[in-house]
Amino acid sequence: MTQSQATFIVNLYHKAGKLVVYIFLGLFAFITIFPFVWSAILATHDRSTMFARGISFALGDKIAQNYSNLLELMDFWTGMLNSLSISVIGTSFSLIFCSMAGYALATYKFKGRNAIFGVMVGSMMIPPILTLIPYYMVISTLGLANTHLAVWLPFTINPFGIFLIRQYVVASVPKDILEASKLDGASEWRTYWQIVLPLLRPGLATLAIVQFVFLWNNFLNPLVVLNSPEKMVITQMLRGVQGVPNTPWGAVMLGTTISILPLIAIYMTASKQMISGLTSGAVK
Amino acid sequence: MKAHLKAGITALSLITATAFAADIRIDGFPDYDTQINAIKDGLSQHNVTMLKNNHGDHHNKLKTNLATGTGAGDVVLIDVGFVGSFVNAGGFVDLTKFYKDMAGDYASYAVAAGKGNDGAQYAVPVDLGPGVMYYRRDYMEDMGFDLDEVMTDWDTYIDYGRKLKEKGILLIGDAGALANAYYRFNTKEGEGLYFDADGKSLVTSERFVRAFEIAKEVRDGGMDGQISEWTEDWYSGFRDGKFATQMSGAWLLGHLKNWIAPDTAGLWGVSNLPAGTYGSWGGSYLAIPKQAKNPEASWDLIEYMISEDIQLAGFKNIAAFPAHTGTYNDASFEEPIEFLRGQKARMLFAEIVDNVAPVTPMKGDLIAEDLINQALEKVLNDGEDIKKALNDVEKQLKRRVR
Amino acid sequence: MNSETVISQAPVSAPAQKAEQRNHFKEKFTPYGFLMPYFIIYGVFGIFPVFFMIYLSFHLWNPVEGLGSMEFVGLENYVLGLTDPTLWQTMWNTLVMAILSGVPQHLFALPLAYFLVMLGSRARHWLTTAYFLPYITSTVAVSMIFYVMYSKDSGIFNAVLLYLSEAPLTAWILSGIKESLPLGWVQENSLIRYSVSFVVWWKYVGFNTVIYTAGLATISQDLYEAAKIDGANNWQRFRHVSLPLLQPFIFFGVTLTIIGNMNLFDEPFVLTVGGQFAQTNGKTISNYLYQVAWQWLDMGSAAAISWILFVVIGIFTAIYFYLFGRKGLGGE
Predict the structure, then answer these.
(1) Fewest 10 Å CB contacts: which of A13, B111, B255, B371?
(2) pLDDT class for A54, splitting at 50, 70, 90?
(3) Poorest-confidence range of A50-59, B135-144, C91-100?
(4) Which family does it belong to (chain A) (predicted)?
(5) What is the model's pLDDT at position B85?
(6) CA–CA separation, B401 vs C297, rounded Å?
């Protein structure tokens, strides 16, 4: 076998491998995207054409009508704005609180560490539907009923987030950097704030997405806490119109589709941060 | 001194309560938001707002509010399915003194269902659901059947289904509805749906066995489409004329006419259920939670909502069938309904309301309903034996209803 | 820890000793300082509900009767729960769906993440966005979309199957099930677990992929270069470089999947229209819990069931931590 033949075979092998990879990636993209395409198509129809039988990918012409229906049904943009402010504020605080706790659990040895970790993992296992009543009791005792604070503050210490950050610190913050920083005379807080946090960027970006998505989609807590229309969040409003059998599906689908957009935006921003950890390769 | 001041403030607030405008929030589910918006200007002395959530969410929120004693509206709308468990819960204002003089104007079976075990009125009916059979007139005519002949009893009804099947038409969307109708509409005076007056379970009684048998006969005979109600398939079933009959409340008429199957106008009729049974299928109540700041003002809203004119307006706005029996004398009740080929169906609805026997709400009703539906599914879909399924329900009820 | 040894190596003088004490004090209390927000918020919002639920599980309580109506019943709720056939049936349903949806999640997510990282930044960006879409959409919306697609007469799944069963090329594959078309994806007890699991799988693959992508981002390129120079091929690099270094993330992801799937609620709830269809096989233990608590208004019994569930998940998690925890938690 000549050199060129060998290169050819290796190249072919590589190309075939790449093709398989592309097919795999593409197929999965199709599977994930399809239901959204389908619902977007449905959002341009009204109910009479929406559920017609057979496979048809034709777009309807009812989108303007659905939009005006939507505005008539609910104070859509107020809800979007409320959801946005709750999610942004809640996410910011939880990034700080969770990274502080996760960092402490990963780097320090101290009394009760395992117990705290156990309690955290344990508290993930308690079904939220059942703690709704005591949650509401606490909120109304604190006088937080019908405030946005009640909807985000309890969730800023998400145990998932703390666990996630802990794992990132373990994987990506080398111990010797912390030592070096301490020898330089930096305080604990400065070490955390100036050295550790920047290293955690991919992890924080992931957490930001998770928190933002959770706060944006949260429904049960706003339902029992928020009861004046100007305070309501978008999930509450969209669900509110689903009670009737003749749910205006076109309008609801359109509202749902629009309400996903901020999540996509935050994801695009955060995923850049996440990936940048790969290219910058902060510390070796 | 302090006590004095407090008393003074209380007195003052009582005066303001009755003399000045109050903010009243009513918590409910759609379509009542449409109705409230249409009528709230008529109650000019108070400022009325509505907190709307979908049907299930609304009731869950209400349960949380009752559990914690805070956060409920000044007036709440309650679906008939929950009334039984709510009226004895102690969380609502006794409305007897407001309501007793006018109670006679409302459908008696519904008024009775709003009373607690202590005989006090905790919830008042605002709309009703007279239960009827919707049927396709054209199918009956084409096959030479007469309505009275079909509806003589359940056997003749099923015979009609067999003939329909030969033509490739289904008798009903989901056979489960037949079982539901049968055991709901054949209760004896003084009984509950699932329990007798002493709280003993009735689910293994003849009423349930027969109900299950009817449904099973229809399912096994291929006379239903296993099309679950309130799904898109069900709606298109109406549009395409897939099934010949459907039992439901009077309120289904509005849905059929407006959006489910407007093109089938003139093809439908309504009738009593087989064997001339009367029953009710849905309905809503109004109540005032004890936590409401100002029960007098809350009552003003309820009184307004159940007044004759507003009841009629509700019938026209959102097809909520009035609980006020005085409305049945309105000229509109004699109007022929085009969608039903000119039938004066509202007279039939009113007649049913007059004849429905009151069913005593019992403590375990919600549990029993779920278990019975689950047993029905096992019998119809998985071929489980009727006796065994019902015995299992009774065993579970004995454990669960405490 | 390392830091202590470093400090103790310093020459000991009087001020240094003081500084050391101060350091020691700081060393001891800083972690608690960092955990302070957690302690405060968890103390206010987390502790009370837990104790309330423990208290509740020993009582008979109908919530609509208000807080005053609790009645002490001792262990009755636990006895009732543990001898309840429905509880064990729903526990089994939950376990089956957890495995059916959980295992494929990670089997797909790992290679997806690995391939994604190899791509150019633009393609990677758009593809991850696509994969992540299901996760950021509210479960209720997702389940509604699938509910429409699973619909028996008008759903796209059945429409496609029906089309394929009649198309000449594919008819023979589907000839076995042609008779039973259209399928009641969410109505039939025999199908519901697969239908629910598919939605759960679909929703969380992207999430796990993102976790793994971010995990791969922590691995230095130098290691891959070194492996390449040593002549490792793609698979070997994945197997011997990526996989071991991803361990904390795999551990994290799988822990979340175990806990999340055992608490599965929304997807089966919406797909079976609030538990109306396929109640025997489609109801998870969380759905049952909801039914007992909010529909049957028996909060005490539901609290007991949730503690039983808690213990079961706890056992699974503990076994998992015991088997893989040392590697997964790392840094010990």
Answers:
(1) A13
(2) low
(3) A50-59
(4) Belongs to the binding-protein-dependent transport system permease family.
(5) 81
(6) 11
The pLDDT of residue A264 is 86
**C133 and A235 in contact by Cβ < 8 A?**
no
Same-domain pairing of C42 and C136: no
**Is C10 a domain residue?**
yes
Query: Please, what are the domains in chain B?
Result: 2-129+282-336 (3.40.190.10), 130-280+339-400 (3.40.190.10)
Q: Mean pLDDT of residues grouped by 10 in chain B (402 residues)?
A: 46 47 90 90 91 87 89 93 84 94 93 89 94 93 91 94 93 93 87 88 94 95 88 86 92 87 92 88 93 93 95 90 94 91 92 88 86 92 92 91 82
Name the packing angle between helices A3-43 and C121-136 (round to 10°): 40
Q: C222: burial class by Cβ within 10 Å (0-12, 13-18, 19+)?
A: exposed
In this structure, is residue C175 part of a structural domain?
A: no
Chain A residues with CB under 8 Å of C32 CB are 104, 110
Q: Is the N-terminal amide bond of C134 cis, ω within 30° of 0?
A: no
pLDDT tens-place string over residues C180-217: 778 888 888 889 999 999 999 999 999 999 889 888 87
Comparing A23-32, C244-253, C296-305, C319-328, which segment has the lowest mean pLDDT?
Answer: C319-328
**pLDDT at residue number A282:** 40
Using a CB–CB cutoff of 8 Å, tell me whether C330 touches chain A. Answer: yes
| Mean predicted lDDT score pLDDT of chain A | 84
Let me know whether C94 and C39 are in one domain.
no
Residues C52 and C82 in one domain: no
Same domain, C141 and C220: yes
Q: What residue segments make up the domains of chain A, in order of their start?
A: 3-63, 69-280
Q: Please classify residue A1 by burial: count the beta carbons closer than 10 Å to its beta carbon, then call 0-12 exposed, 13-18 middle and 19+ buried.
A: exposed
Residue B224, SS3 per DSSP: strand
Chain C residue numbers with beta carbons less than 8 Å from the beta carbon of B232 are 148, 151, 153-154
Query: Is residue A64 predicted with pLDDT exceeding 80?
Result: yes
Please name the member of C64, C67, C278 whose beta carbon is closest to the beta carbon of B63: C64
Pick the residue from chain B with its C-alpha nearest to C295.
Answer: B366
Residues C146 and C243 in one domain: yes
> Cβ contacts of residue A193 below 8 Å, gap of 6+?
none
Tokens (6 digits) for C13? 């003088």
Question: Which residues of C fall within a CB distance of 8 Å from A116?
Answer: 35, 38
Q: Do C80 and B226 touch (CB under 8 A)?
A: no
Question: Crossing angle of helices C2-9/C14-41, nearest 10°?
Answer: 160
Instruction: Map residue A14 onto helix, strand or coil.
Output: helix
Closest CA to C187 of C269, C265, C274, C276: C276
- Are residue C132 and residue C215 in the same domain, yes or no? yes
- Indicate the residue of B89, B382, B400 with minimum beta-carbon distance to C64: B89
* C135 and C228 assigned to the same domain: yes
Q: Which of residues 150-169 of A touch C (CB under 8 A)?
A: 153-154, 156-157, 160, 162-164, 167-169
Cα–Cα distance for residue pair B201/B195, rounded to 1 Å: 4
Answer yes or no: is C177 within a domain: no
Domain count for chain C? 2
Whether the upstream peptide bond of residue B155 has omega within 30° of 0, thus cis, is no
CATH code of the domain covering residue C290? 1.10.3720.10
CB-based contact, A133 to chain B, within 8 Å: yes
A69-280 CATH choice from 1.10.3720.10, 3.30.420.10, 2.30.29.150, 3.40.50.300: 1.10.3720.10
Structural domain harbouring C14: 1-56
pTM: 0.85
Q: Are B169 and B267 contacting, i.e. CB atoms less than 8 angstroms apart?
A: no
Provide the number of CB pairs (under 8 Å) joining chain A to chain B.
Answer: 60
pLDDT of C123 over the 50 cut: yes
